[in-house]
Amino acid sequence: NRGDKVTVLDERNGDKFENLNKYDLIVRSPGVYRYRPELLKTRTPITSKTKLFFDLCPGKIIGVTGTKGKGTTATLIYEILKAAGKKVYLGGNIGTGIFETLEKTGKDDWVVLELSSFQLIDLHKSPHIAVILMTTAEHQDWHKNILEYVEAKKNLVCHQTPTDYAVVNKDYPNSVEIGKAATGQIAWVSKDFLQNMADEEIGLRGSHNRENVVAAATAAKLAGVNEPTIRKVIKEFKGLEHRLEEVAAVNGVIYYNDSFSTTPETAIAAIKTFREPEIVILGGSSKNSDFSALGKTIRETQNIKALILIGSEAKKIEKTVGKARGVRVIRNPGNMAKIVEIAYNNAVSGDIVLLSPACASFDMFKNYKDRGLQFKKEVLALNEKQKP
Questions:
Q1: Helix (H, G, I), strand (E, B) or coil at 187
Q2: Cα separation of 284 and 297, whole Å?
Q3: For residue 113, which of 88, 138, 137 has the smallest C-alpha distance?
Q4: Burial degree of 17 (CB within 10 A; 0-12, 13-18, 19+)
Q5: Distance, CA of 71 to CA of 259 (rounded, Å)
Q6: What is d(CA 93, CA 114) in angstroms, rounded to the nearest whole number?
């Protein structure tokens, strides 16, 4: 639209990243590793959609990152600011495309961005309010190592001014490490800071979501929102699809879709959410994850009655779990219809069936959304069978 001549190179279509010096500018998509040899060799400046947005956006940006919880927290911040009457947009990996709202954004408006390490690895500016959630290990199939992953996320805070803010979860060493790089004012947060809010005052289930809630509430306060508005939205907000989403109750059994769980840490958090007897569906394709902590959690959690292990990581998870007393293990049952059927046949009234795979989905499904949608379809089909 600005008169540039644009060439698109897409490896999925067979294009090669060759002769890059002949271009005036390279715009890297998030999935393209910043330090691959072709990009390191070129003399051409390299930018990205995220970097361009930070250069061009006249409004105030709130950036949210972490290993998990980004989408939930960013959306909650957006809903709180919207309820407070502020003009606000939601973008990044969620919401509306960030360029689509750019021309409508004014200097007094707010933009909440969910940002991954793929987008942050070469970010050259930091937002007015940066939110650092639980940061553990993720994308080790993309990053060189955990150090590079953490360093990428530091870009969200290390370019701030003294009048900017960093909201940092102090309960995780990697998050603290990122927070120490902040050049603005730091607000340390913890789920323990919500002790004055009962569970029924929070619409989201789970201890891990208390971390997301306190981070969102702190960011909203820094953006000028009053406490009654924050509390009201927190109570009404029920979360996002595929994130510990209640699908249906069938014969007294409640089915939860947590397909967005692609790491052991998020599966652990989901498992710990419930006190009811649980049938947990785990497994999928590899992200080179370490399942030892997940195995320990399963062995020590008294209310897990069965595991349904699926996908190429099923055997690795089973080995890590070992002999968990009283836990029935069902291996590789087949497609999602069979998985849900087996869960149904093993559940009784009062149980929870939890899809929280701890793995990527690409061995059996298009992506985590496809996995979650197939789960929901099969559960809702069960529900239809129960109707007279």
A1: strand
A2: 19
A3: 88
A4: middle
A5: 14
A6: 6
Residue 377 CB neighbour total at 10 angstroms: 13
- Mean pLDDT over each residue of the chain, to the nearest integer: 91
- H helices present in 223-364, as ranges: 227-236, 264-273, 292-300, 314-321, 336-346
DSSP designation for 182:
-
**pLDDT tens per residue across span 92-127:** 877 678 888 898 999 999 999 999 888 999 999 999
**CA separation (Å) from 248 to 377, 378, 386?**
11, 11, 12
Residue-level pLDDT at 137: 62
C-alpha–C-alpha distance, residues 177 and 355, integer Å: 32
Rounded to 10°, the helix 264-273/207-222 angle is 100
- What is the sign of the dihedral through the CA atoms of 378, 356, 78 and 58? negative
CA distance 138 to 146: 8
**Residue from 63, 280, 245 nearest 158 by CA:** 63
pLDDT in the model for residue 56: 95
Spatial contact of 18 and 67, defined as CB atoms under 8 Å apart: no
Burial of 123 (0-12, 13-18, 19+ CB in 10 A): buried
And the tokens for 232?
A: 């009201």
Within 10 A of 296 (CB to CB), how many other CB atoms are there? Answer: 15
Helices in 155-200 by DSSP H: which ranges?
A: 173-179
In three-state secondary structure terms, 224 is coil
The pTM for the full model equals: 0.76
